[in-house]
Design a protein that fits this description.
This protein is 43% helix and 18% strand. It has two domains: 193 residues, Rossmann fold (3-Layer(aba) Sandwich); 157 residues, 3-Layer(aba) Sandwich (Rossmann fold). The strands form five sheets. It has a five-stranded parallel sheet, with helices on both faces. The chain has a four-stranded parallel sheet with strand order 9-8-10-11, with helices on both faces. A three-stranded antiparallel sheet has the order 12-15-16. The termini are far apart. It is an alpha/beta fold and 401 residues long. The protein is built from 15 helices and 16 strands. Keywords: Amino-acid transport, Signal, Transport. This is ABC transporter substrate-binding protein. InterPro entries: BCAA_transport, Leu-bd, Peripla_BP_I. Belongs to the leucine-binding protein family.
């Protein structure tokens, strides 16, 4: 027989466990922003994503479960091992509940493996590979902004339809660039066009001369830029210096952002066909958010920054509606609730983790068409979610029955 004191002690511990909330529920909800603050993707995400996360927390009310919502951030240096080390530390010892951003596909896929291990939520708003919701999908990951499939299908198909039927790719030599080339090449070939070749360049390349000479020599009508951020800007600038467009070839920026157009200026960027998930001058909601963001950071938001706001706000609404921070319960609520905010008014989070929504096809204005700062795009078409994003059945995601 156990001593009476031991029984009383055990009963007391059980009573305390039943009455008191868990330590996890007592701790403040914490969001971690893993971004690029110092390299090629800092303009499209970076500190703008941190600010967007803060705006979402403020707009939600700043508190969850009676405690202020916390936020931490770190620079992943675009290295998967650095991203994994930070994420592990945040999830193991710092009480981070959700990680957002992830600037490259390689960093996203690395942290996705950890999120499965720790059963923690992560939301990808910068990285673009369609593999994130395809063969590498995870029950704990949401992919929010765009992906290589959606961009390839909106920009690539439009260009082929307008006569751009031979392509040569200038490709960033890592998963994102390879995914852009693969997905756009598939679109070109499906539409009856031909891919004449490609050349790979390192991430964050300063000198594109040798790569552009190969693209020029291909005689392809379209040089597809399967890169992003600073690499896209440098490639377009140097293509101008080589007289590539003047010589009859055209550039297709598959993944381009308003910050890229701003850096290039309308004289260089005019006429480019681009696809975006968000543009500040689309409607009253986008304009209101864009102007608030501009006041805080002195730049209009990129689609990634608007998406980071949207994803953070949606996550917070889901936690509140679920009444818990339990990962599986919150993810189920995120899929149940529609996404309606300044980023999109028709978003739905699918079981493969893809948040589907309208995409937009734009043409960059000529300098004389612009009415002022950041007035850069002419809307060509709104592409519905079911046309822009890969069908659920075609992605190869093991979660899809």
């Amino acid at each position: 027989m156990r001593p009476i004191a031991a029984l009383v002690s055990a009963a007391g511990l059980l009573s305390a466990a039943l009455i008191a909330p868990t330590s996890a529920q007592q701790a403040p909800l914490k969001i971690g922003v893993l971004s690029d603050f110092s390299s090629v993707y800092s303009d499209i995400g970076g500190m703008g994503n941190v600010e967007a996360t803060k705006m979402a927390i403020e707009d939600f009310g700043g508190q969850m479960f009676g405690k202020p919502i916390d936020m931490v951030s770190a620079d992943v240096l675009n290295k998967p091992d650095v991203a994994s080390t930070i994420a592990r530390k945040w999830w193991e010892t710092e009480g981070v509940d959700m990680i957002i951003d992830l600037p490259t596909s390689a960093t996203a896929l690395a942290v996705m493996e950890l999120s499965k291990q720790y059963e923690k939520i992560m939301i990808v708003t910068d990285a673009a590979s369609s593999d994130i919701t395809g063969k590498s999908c995870s029950p704990y990951t949401a992919h929010w902004t765009y992906d290589t499939y959606a961009n390839a299908h909106t920009v690539g198909s439009a260009i082929v339809k307008n006569g751009g039927d031979t392509w040569f790719f200038l490709t960033a030599d890592y998963l994102f660039g390879h995914s852009v080339e693969r997905d756009t090449g598939d679109v070109v070939k499906a539409a009856g066009g031909k891919v004449l070749g490609s050349v790979k360049h390192p991430l964050n390349t300063a000198d594109f001369s040798s790569f552009l000479l190969q693209a020029q020599a291909s005689k392809a009508k379209i040089i597809g830029l399967a890169n992003g951020g600073g690499d896209t800007i440098n490639a377009i600038k140097q293509a101008g210096e080589f007289g590539i467009v003047a010589g009859g070839q055209n550039l297709a920026a598959i993944v381009m952002f308003i910050s890229d157009v701003h850096s290039l200026g309308l004289k260089l960027a005019q006429g480019l066909i681009v696809t975006e998930a968000y543009y500040w001058d689309l409607n009253d909601k986008t304009r209101a958010f864009g102007k608030r963001f501009l006041e805080r950071i002195k730049r209009m938001p990129t689609m990634n920054q608007a998406a980071t706001y949207s994803a953070t706000l949606h996550y917070l609404k889901a936690v509140q509606a679920a009444g818990t921070r339990d990962t599986k319960t919150v993810m189920a609520k995120m899929r149940e609730l529609p996404v309606k905010d300044a980023f999109t008014d028709n978003g739905v989070l699918r079981e493969d983790g893809r948040m589907v929504h309208s995409m937009y096809l734009f043409q960059v204005k000529k300098p004389e068409e612009s009415k002022g700062p950041w007035d850069y795009y002419k809307l060509l078409a709104e592409v519905p979610a079911d046309q822009a994003f890969r069908p659920l059945k075609d992605g190869g995601c093991p979660l899809v029955k």
